[in-house]
Amino acid sequence: MVNFTILAGGFTTFIATYVFDSEAGSLSLTKQNPTGENPSWIASHPLNKTVLYAVNEIGPVGNLQSFLIDDNGFLSLVDTAATGGNGPTYTEALSTGEVSGMNFGSPNASFIATNPEDPARFVQSASPVVSFPVGDGPSNPHMSLEFNGEVFVPDLGADKIWRLKNDGGEPGNFKVQGQIDITPGNGPRHIAIRDNLLFILHEKTSVLTAQPIPSAPNGTTLPVLANVSIVPEEAKSLNGSFFAAELVISEPSEAFPDPLIYVSNRNLGPDFDARGDSIAIFEYSALLPGGNGTQTDTNTDTTTDTTTGTESTPAGTDGAEQPTITVTATSTLSSAPTATQTIKIAPTAFTTLVAANTPAKARRESADAEPVAKRMVKYHARRRAEHEQYHNHKRQDYGYGSGDSSSASPASSSSASAPASSSTAAGASTITLVSGSTTPASPSGTATATATGTTATSGGPIVATATPTAATLRLTNQVFTGLRQIRSFAIGKTEGGGDEFLIAGANLDGGVAVFKRTEGGRNLELVVRNEELQNRTSFVFL
User: Fold this and answer.
1) Helix, strand, or coil (residue 264)
2) Opening angle at CA 523, ends 316 and 191, nearest 5
3) Where do Low complexity bias regions lie (predicted)?
4) What secondary structure letter does DSSP report for 498?
């Protein structure tokens, strides 16, 4: 018998302990461990597996809690610290000893230091709150991700990926050192990094994108290399309202050698699919400078453009000359030089992130030829008001709705950089994509050959990087789960074969379900469902 103990947070006053017996195909609820209110997100310590952290998503000031885990997966509370902001929605234990608290209802975050001798004990006096420079604009930080000495924070309200670093070497002291700008209205929710590509799941448009990471510290934004809508095709027949939630990239193992991207759809209604929400599974490949690439697709002969449903030969695989895109940074200061960088890029992998900046007349004329991703952007823009009204009600239920600014229009953000259609502040640099002479016309017209909304502030000219210059995202499956409103899911650990399984929970109904990863991870098969509890919103495999 192979048992896996799994912890599950949610909008209750406890963290649930489940035991999954993979041979018997059973999932048993063994305990409801008392906690503070709304332990919506939980995370384990990266080295000490007996320590668990959880946020209390409450207002006007939320909390971070620590627990010790016994051999049965039962919890005992150790410490509680305030996050310094409203409604923390995410936590992560950093390798440097801090634990993050992302205050979704406030334009700030905390990185609370822990005792080096006892990581379950907080040292809050050494951990000032970090504020994000949005002025009076909206800000809803939703996640933190440690990478290469930085912490990346997707801000759903500000349409930014903030880049933070430790300020002066003292534990718990962080500062914003740069940003990656997102086209207004997309709402970056969760992120992942693989092969120096930044994958972003945008809540408001249900779009998955891939783009290279600029060198730090700066405010440069490099072009989006690939984007796809994650919404199932069947959604067209529903009066639903889809908003993306979770993004996980699987770790390679002997049983599952290819890293795959798993993302969750979340339908807020009013109409729902009887099969529940789906988890979409994507393969990706990245082209490095000089033609070297990483490939997760076992079929290297063709790639599928999921925005058009067509297949094409990847650039550089048939010996033909690869198209180029020229990236030009033009300073608004007359004395500053213009920096130009030409990179190789596969035109079929590059599409515009959003269609919001395209003139209305042009959008109507090209409606029949528009990619799915662009049509979904416009569909979600129409449903955004309902979505934000729903979230405002939920925030009021959890006690942090009154001061939340997330309902403001993303386009009204008074952030450091302006939308592409407006002029930038003095000294800023505008990154413009110009099609190379060898680039063929895009199937949907010239609009898809232009990086709409890639305006960014920069401290200097563009610096060439050894990052991927092209990427593809290919949908392999849409797995309907029987769960309504999947906020999160988790894949088991590679040790002991736990990565054969994925667990997901419903925000509304459908309970908690365990799926078996099949076909190399490209499909999911339901193993067992437990409906004793609803509203399970985050998971940790022990």
Assistant:
1) strand
2) 65
3) 294-323, 403-462
4) G
**Cα–Cα dist 154/182, whole Å:** 10
pLDDT band at 150 (very low <50, low <70, confident <90, very high): very high
**22-55 b/e with 16+ CB inside 10 Å = b?**
beeeebeeebebebbebbbbbbbbeeeeebbbbb
Closest CA to 129 of 78, 164, 77, 79: 164
How do residues 391-426 score in pLDDT, each as one tens digit?
Answer: 554 444 444 443 333 333 322 222 333 222 222 222
Cα–Cα distance measured from residue 152 to residue 161, given in angstroms and rounded to the nearest whole number: 6
- 535 in the Ramachandran plot: left (φ > 0), alpha (ψ -120 to 50) or beta? left
Neighbours of 409 (CB within 10 A): 13
**Largest separation between any pair of C-alpha atoms in the chain:** 72
- Cis peptide, bond prior to residue 217, ω within 30 of zero: yes
**Token pair in block for residue 404:** 């939340």
Comparing CA positions, the residue from 290, 296, 320, 299 lying closest to residue 467 is: 290
Q: How far apart are CA 470 and CA 366, in angstroms?
A: 26
Among residues 230, 243, 131, 140, the alpha carbon closest in space to that of 182 is found at 140
Whole-angstrom distance, CA of residue 110 vs CA of residue 227: 31
Most confident of 117-121, 234-238, 393-397: 117-121
CA distance 9 to 540: 9
And the tokens for 70? 């016994």
Give me the phi and psi of 520, to 5 degrees please.
70, 20
Q: What token pair was written down for 322?
A: 């690869």
CA angle centred on 388, ends 383 and 393, rounded to 5°: 130
- Digit-coded pLDDT (tens) for 471-528: 889 999 999 999 999 999 999 999 889 999 999 999 889 999 999 999 999 999 999 9
* Alpha carbon distance, N-terminus to C-terminus of the chain: 16
In terms of C-beta density within 10 A (0-12 exposed, 13-18 middle, 19 or more buried), how is residue 295 classed?
middle
Matching residue, tokens 């528009």: 370
- Given a contact cutoff of 8 angstroms between Cβ atoms, the answer to whether 73 and 53 are in contact is no
- The Cα–Cα gap between 317 and 190 comes to 32
Asked whether the beta carbons of 488 and 538 are under 8 A apart, the reply is yes
